[in-house]
Amino acid sequence: MHNRFDQFRLTALGQQLEALIDSPQRYTEYAALSRAEIPAVSAIVHDLQSRFPELAADQTARQFCGAMVGDVMRRHGHALLRPRGRVPGSYFSYGAVWSPLPQQRSFAELLQQLAAMPALVQHSLAAVPAAQRRQRPAGTAFSALEHLCHLRDLDRDAFLPRVQAMRQQQQAALHGVNGSVWAVERDYQAQDWQQAVDGFAAARQALLAALQDCDAAAQARIAVWEGVRRLTLAELVADMAAHDATHLQEIDELLAALAGEAV
């Protein structure tokens, strides 16, 4: 989930919504709707309308709901089929459509997905006119330029150091970063577009190079995330692929917003 929701998640409303959305019973509903190619977020529309009427005027809260459902689906191994499917009822114009069944991907398949990301991003953002590259419409997380800078810096300054630490240390201590803070501190909006494009491609190439020769033993190496969660290198790579998928979804929302559509 994007860092822009970190503060909202800590509010009383955010915690109430998370309790509603992230439960085994709800996942069963999300999975059933996905088998019918209906956006998973449709499962909570009735409860939101009846229990959370204030969401009708709270775009951030509604977007948090969609992001939280996405987190649940990715955690259970579902892949994004379509970023924008029609949601019955009100509160949501569109919602993500997820794969009918969880998808187990091999380490090699995850690396292939990571390798494809720079070209996918460049293809998607090629439709953004130069005059709109720094625009951040209401309801979107990043501008097109900020997406590129964020992906570049995360590969270079977070993902690659984590992989290196796990390969060199036993139970390496890993920590998260706040991409929204980086966007401000590093002034992404003032950076050069082509340098960001090239920088992301180079950073992803370096990340993949660090992962290419990982055998089964390397993939099973353990790290400790924020002192709480233990995860393998293979799981870390799966998290990276999920992060990529989140950005592709957000870029689709950005393109829709720039075109004047509701997000």
UniProtKB/TrEMBL annotation:
<protein>
    <submittedName>
        <fullName>DinB family protein</fullName>
    </submittedName>
</protein>
<dbReference type="Pfam" id="PF12867">
    <property type="entry name" value="DinB_2"/>
</dbReference>
<dbReference type="InterPro" id="IPR024775">
    <property type="entry name" value="DinB-like"/>
</dbReference>
<feature type="domain" description="DinB-like">
    <location>
        <begin position="113"/>
        <end position="251"/>
    </location>
</feature>
<dbReference type="InterPro" id="IPR034660">
    <property type="entry name" value="DinB/YfiT-like"/>
</dbReference>
